[in-house]
Design goal:
- GO terms for molecular function: oxidoreductase activity, acting on the CH-OH group of donors, NAD or NADP as acceptor.
- The protein has ten helices and ten strands.
- The protein is of the alpha/beta class.
- Helix 6 links the parallel strand 8 and strand 9.
- The N and C termini lie far apart (43 Å).
Length: 276
């Protein structure tokens, strides 16, 4: 069983530090089995999105797992072509029905669609005020997007989920989020696999008797960033959760911090092809 450590979001809701991401996990058995394995291993946070087209499989796994619904922190996201006030309300209902749940724990705006995300946020606030979601947040927002949103928002986002790993440490964004009480969350914390082979990470892993993936996940936690490593391999799902029985040294963290290149494997939010 993993440590069930949680962080308290800005509205008092507790979110697990480590969860399972299911991006690119095929709907049906691959997603369902991955979620079942994660819940068996003690994970209590699952992250999906309408765009992933596997919400139904996530919901099936949750129901079949035997883990009480109230123990699971479930995140999903509204996609770009679903944004706008009414569209977001409808998208939420579609996601809720596919997941087969009454309440979603965390609902995120997937990308800051220009000219749309403020209107979308209005719908998120309504869903929150109606008790249909426990927390609302954003994904892939820069400091500028957050500042623009918060000028008019009645509710400050609880979470900002972004690409975060040693080669894209986003220190400025991390400090901005900390200042404003927004919990940062990492997607693609393991890079595209290349970070798992990195010499610096490997040396630290050898010193701690851990895998390179465990070092990368632990670095997220040491820098106060929630993380959702994705895998459909049972052994990796199990191993990725075993990060609460050791700590990185100050020297370890300094060495990993020194790897930053502002390198993104995904799109910069300003360069995303929103018109496609």
């Amino acid at each position: 069983m993993i440590n069930t450590a949680t962080v308290s979001l800005n509205n008092g809701v507790n979110m697990p530090w480590v969860g399972l991401g299911v991006y690119k996990a095929e709907s049906g058995e691959p997603t369902k089995n991955a979620v079942l394995q994660a819940l068996k291993d003690g994970y209590r946070s699952i992250d999906t999105a309408s765009f992933y087209d596997n919400e139904e499989s996530v919901g099936e796994a949750i129901r079949e797992s035997g883990v009480p619904r109230e123990e699971i922190f479930l995140t999903t996201k509204v996609w770009n072509d679903e944004q706008g006030f009414e569209q977001t309300m409808e998208a939420f209902e579609r996601s809720r029905q596919k997941l087969g749940v009454d309440v979603i724990d965390l609902y995120l705006i997937h990308w800051p669609v220009p000219g749309k995300y403020k209107e979308t946020w209005g719908a998120m606030e309504k869903l929150y005020n109606e008790g249909k979601v426990k927390a609302i947040g954003v994904s892939n927002f820069t400091e500028e997007h957050l500042e623009n949103l918060m000028k008019e928002a009645k509710i400050t986002p609880a979470v900002n989920q972004v690409e975060y790993h040693p080669k894209n440490a986003q220190k400025g964004l991390r400090e901005f989020c900390e200042t404003h009480g927004i919990q940062m969350e990492a997607w693609r914390p393991l890079g595209r696999g290349d970070l798992l082979e990195d010499e610096t990470i490997q040396q630290i892993a050898d010193r701690h008797g851990k895998t390179t993936a465990q070092i990368l996940i632990r670095w997220c936690l040491e820098t106060k960033v929630v993380t959702i490593p994705k895998s459909i391999t049972p052994e990796r799902i199990t191993a990725n959760a075993q990060v609460f029985d050791f700590s990185l040294t100050a020297e370890d963290i300094q060495a990993i911090d020194g790897m930053n290149e502002d390198l993104r494997y995904g799109y910069h939010p300003d360069d995303f092809p929103y018109d496609k």
